[in-house]
Every structure is written in C-alpha cells, then in structure tokens.
Please model this.
Amino acid sequence: EVQLVESGGGLVQPGSPLKLSCAASGFTFSSNWLNWIRQAPGKGLEWVASINPDGSSTYYPDTVKGRFVVSKDNAKNTGYLQMNNLRSEDTAMYYCARRVVLQWHYFDYWGQGVMVTVSS
Amino acid sequence: DTVLTQSPALAVSPGERVTISCRASESVSTGMHWYQQKPGQQPKLLIYGASNLESGVPARFSGSGSGTDFTLTIDPVEADDTATYFCQQSWNDPFTFGSGTKLEIK
Model:
C-alpha cells in the first residue's frame, strides 16, 4: 500500500525557517517524482515544489523560488521541503504527493498533510 | 500562468446527474485532471488525462473535454459524494489548480 506521511509542521514566526519531511512507503521511492502542494485555510491548492526521481532537478513556482528547497534521500525513502524566510502567506496545509509522469503529469497519491502557521 | 475557473458551489439530490465544469484561460490539450477532497482529508485523484478513470474510482464518475473546456460528471450522485472537486492542469508550466467546486447533496 502506497503511503506518504508528512511531519515537521508547526507555528513559526515570520522570517523563520522550517523543514518538512515526507516518509514514503509501499512503492519504489527512487523511481518517482516527489512533489509538495499546499492549501491555505479555506482556499484552493497550489503546487510549490517538485523534484525528479534521482534528485538532480528541482522545480518551483515564482511564489516560493529562492525561499523553498526540495530534496529527497532515496536511501531513507524520505523527501524534504526546506522553507526559509517564511511569510504569513505561507500559512497552509502542506501535502507531499507522488507524481505520475506518463503522457500527462498528475498526482496519484497524497499524504494526509501537515499544518504550517506563520505568525508573530 | 494558466488560470482554471470553476463554479464555487452546486447542490443536487441523490440519484441526480451533476456536471462540474472547469474552464482554462488557455489550451491545456487533454492535460486536465480531477480530484475529490472531503472535509479534513487530502485530495484523491478521480480522473486523469481529461477522461481516464483512476483505478478504484466508481464508474459513476466520468470526465470529458479538451482544449479549454472540461467537465466532471457524477451519475448518479450519492450522499457520500459531498466534497470539493478540484481540476488541475499539467500542460503548461507551472501546474495550476482550479479554486474548487463544493458539491452539496441535498
């Protein structure tokens, strides 16, 4: 059974860093893209980071580029999202998700999410 | 960025047929996917590639469309389908999601 379990969320002050983890099981982690998607309270979904299977390439939207860093440790079956210089608008539930990369790219398994609150 | 526009909410009775629409600001070919999110849960993939049913998803769900106009259909609707439905495009960078359509079952 495919499982993705996020951890590391919490309440932090603006400007602080925070690192999220995503523990994967039930599939070959080293052969899959890892992605982070967030959802602000009561709002829609926003893709925030992707990393390719061997970790050699990373992708971000402009809203987080330069502040967020995605990585993965294939030996530990774990992905990470390092978030720096956090802002109030980064407050959201953060999901890690597996991406299918075939004719189309879509997210077939999601973790349960971890909440990040940025507030003074 | 490609903007995906969805109607905010719909209300239908059990047994009825419901269509949820998603309109893209530019063509996404068939790179459109649909997710269901129930309160307090993570999103769940329903449809990929505009019309392909994800394994394990009931055949009551179907998708159609290409280019800029897409539809998710549930027929017949059941009480358990109460949820918010999101579309997502993967044809243009960056990937974007619609704002969601909240489906209420009367």
